[in-house]
Amino acid sequence: MARKLSFLDNKVARRILVSFILAALIPIGILGLLSYQQVSEQLRLQTAKSLHRSCKDYMMSFIDRLNNFESALRLVAIKVEKFGNGFRLIPFINEQSLVGQFDDLVIVAPNGEKTSLVSKTGFIPDLTALEIQEIAVGKSLIKPVVGPEPGNSRLWMAVSLAYTHHEASILMGRLKPEILWKAENIEPNELWVMNETNQLLFASKPDFVLPREVRSEFSLADSGQFDLNYRDDAYVGVYRNLPLKALFASGIIVIVQAQPESLAFAAIQQFSAIYPPVIVLAVLIVALLSARLITKYLTPLERLKAATLRIAEGDFSSRVNINSHDEFEELADSFNEMTRRLRSQFDILSTMAEIDRHILSALDATEIVDIALTRLPGVLYCDLISIAKVDPETYQVSDIHTRRTGHDTDIMAKPIMLGQKDILSLLEKQGSLIETNVNGKLSAYLKAFRGVDDWTFLIVPVVVNGTLSSIICLGYQGRNPIPPESRDAVRNFGDRIAVALSNAAWEEKLYQQAHYDPLTGLPNRLVLNDRLMQELARAKRDHTQLAVLFIDLDRFKTVNDSLGHAAGDELLTQVSRIFVNCVRETDLVVRIGGDEFVIVITDLHNHHNPMSMVSSIAEKILAALNHTLVVAGHAMTFTASLGVAIFPRDADNPQDLLKNADAAMYHAKDEGRANFRFYSPELNAAALENIKLEQELRGAIAREELRVYYQPKVDLSRRIVGAEALIRWQHAELGFISPAKFIPLAEHTGLIVEIGQWVFEQTCLWVKACHAKGFRPIRVSVNLSGIEFKRPDLVDKIAEILSKTGVNPQFIELELTESVAIGNIKDSVERMHKLKALGLSLSMDDFGTGFSSLSYLKELPLDIIKIDQSFVRHLELEKSSQAIVKSILALAHGLSMETVAEGVENEAQFDFLEQNQCQVFQGFLFSRPIPGEDFLKLLAESPVKEEPSKA
Ligand SMILES: Nc1nc2c(ncn2[C@@H]2O[C@H](COP(=O)(O)O[C@H]3[C@@H](O)[C@H](n4cnc5c(=O)[nH]c(N)nc54)O[C@@H]3COP(=O)(O)O)[C@@H](O)[C@H]2O)c(=O)[nH]1
């Protein structure tokens, strides 16, 4: 039942059913209605016709009867004889039958005397003169006498007796009604007979009175039809006026007949009763047949629809079964074929997508090949798949990875040689495929598979970056045609493998770039973070310790600047090899940037003394560096500063371990470089202090905490000939802070630019003020850091300050450090010339500490060389210092440059320098750096020489 009803759930089914029912109902309804109207009309006509006919028949028989009455009356008239004063009837044979037709027979004499021959009622109507006249001319008069009731009306007939008795007497007879009206043959009709004034003479049903309005119609035509209602019955009636005038002297007699519609329309009423059930039956039949038809055609449609929905949900497995031997069965077959193809395509695409995902996430070409060998046979319906490398130049096929149905992957390492023709055809078929067999193209390669004599093979050349890199081979057992979708899929797959292999190569490259330092080949910071995390987890799990060594090369910048970047790179490469050689393979050596390296020493077991073990490694590294290295043709020894932090002692996470090792390294640097330091919490405090100092320094100028002090420079006679401007920082809370502490910090943060400009401007203003106050003009030097010197706007800035302060530039000297000046020799020389062009003097500070080459020292437009105080400090004691100082002095003289010795603290040093023709001296022996006003006091006391000093 549920199945039967279910088709009504279907919209199409409902529509078709309603359409079918309407299609049946509308014509049947219209037909029924039209038929009803037509039949009703026909029945009406027929009824009217039959009534007319009946009316006419009645009329004819009525006239016949009147004629008979007339004949009878005239025969009776013949048998009338005069008898006395009256009349009598002569007996005759047919007397009985003739006289019997009349209820009354009366002879009316011309004098009006009436002699009754037969008398039943005794009533004799009077004749009018016109009637008598008509009778006199031989006509038979018919005279209706209307009674109070229809049954009382009578019809008289009168004829003249003049022809028989030559007297103008008239024989009148009252016609017997039962003979006259004779209405028995008219049933089932009703009959009325009326005179010309519509007075009723006879009615078959006396109480059935015709309404006046109906009767009034009778005078309008000789005959006609009418409708009337009587006692809830409808009647159809006809009337006919009798043309009696031609036969009798008579008024019009109207014959009326009527029949009940129920009788007349009996047939149509039967039709009306039967028609609705017929319609219902027809509808039911149509509905049933439609339902059957719909079910028949809808079931396959429903199945097709359900199958379509299943496909939409991704289920390609079900088939549609229709055995109707018609177009639906053909449609189902086509649908099943389409589903099969879709399923095959879907399988291919989803497998391809899965392969794509694997391929794109796989970095390794071997992994990609492995995925392809495992997944593809299932979607390409092949019995063998093989992927191999091809060298298009040597014609070699190698690394042949093969998988057959039911077997594991086989790797054939031994290469197979292909012919040149094979290679050419592979190159020709790029983006396409080759169909072959073991005796066709690439047979040398295919024969290696064995037992494939009757197989068909599809070969796809894989081209990566325009070069034939590999081939994919699919083997199909037997020579059955290969499905076209497999061919397309194979081609697609060839493209994917090509992309994947090129991706793999590219990913490999990217990975290398992202994780390894291209210069030294060492892992970079990314790897360090990863490994350190892993090693820390392992150390925590195994309860071992771990050390992080932070290494910074000492004076690497000097090498880079003085010998160039290529030399710096060479040094870094050599140093990185030294580091790797100093540790175990399981340890990690990382270059984290510039000249900074990190070494992670793993597996420090607790039963060892980790500190002493790490110390010996650090010493080993320092010792290994201490050997002479040849960099860019220069032999040099090199040092580094190391900081060590140990897990879990100093920190338990990578960031803190690195930070602490870094802090320890800075400590080692502070302590004179070329050594190593373990981290201690105090170091951390120092680092924090540095951060605070930096913050304070940023606001120092604004808070006017900085001052410029001046340290005198004297000549041989100890007379002040110049000064060096040296910055001082008097912090409100921290007190005096040494430039040795904050200048490196300012250089590190870049604040040195602002500070340097401020010192230079202050010095210019001070010099200008001294001159204005009338003091003897002397040259004052200002330190220019490497960072300041390298700024492109340096010359403009200096010129701007000189112009702003209005100082005479010949009394201002700039002290450049050796490394800065020699870094980019061409640029440096150009810039120094520009500075000199402003009228300034240039001196080389800390001379002897860098890697200056005498060959280009002479190219620099220098005026003064300052011997570094490290050579002066133990001059009186160290032969080596004496030798260096002597050679610097000789060099300066040779280049005609003035010499200034700094850091002169005692007479012995002064004496040595004096004896070796040093010209200017600076040091605590003469004065410490002092405020400007104090300096002016000294200057005022300092004797004036008549000859102007060269300083
Ligand atoms: N770029 C700038 N650098 C500056 C500036 N002011 C100072 N500095 C540099 O800071 C370093 C430390 O300077 P400071 O503490 O002022 O030390 C100078 C002298 O006080 C010191 N000196 C002088 N004579 C002696 C002595 O006989 N013994 C001794 N132990 N020290 C002495 O030497 C420093 C001057 O050196 P130098 O500049 O190389 O001539 C220092 O490197 C300054 O250069 C600044 O404004 N800008």
UniProtKB/TrEMBL annotation:
Catalytic activity: 3',3'-c-di-GMP + H2O = 5'-phosphoguanylyl(3'->5')guanosine + H(+)
Keywords: c-di-GMP, Membrane, Transmembrane, Transmembrane helix
A GO CC annotation given for this chain: membrane
Record has rRNA-binding as a keyword: no
Keyword Translocase recorded: no
Cofactor needs: Mg(2+)
GO biological process: cellular response to nitric oxide; signal transduction
InterPro entries assigned to the protein according to its UniProt record, in alphabetical order: Biofilm_reg_signaling (IPR052155), EAL_dom (IPR001633), EAL_sf (IPR035919), GAF-like_dom_sf (IPR029016), GGDEF_dom (IPR000160), HAMP_dom (IPR003660), Nucleotide_cyclase (IPR029787), Rev_trsase/Diguanyl_cyclase (IPR043128)
UniProt domain HAMP: residue ranges: 295-347
Protein name: cyclic-guanylate-specific phosphodiesterase
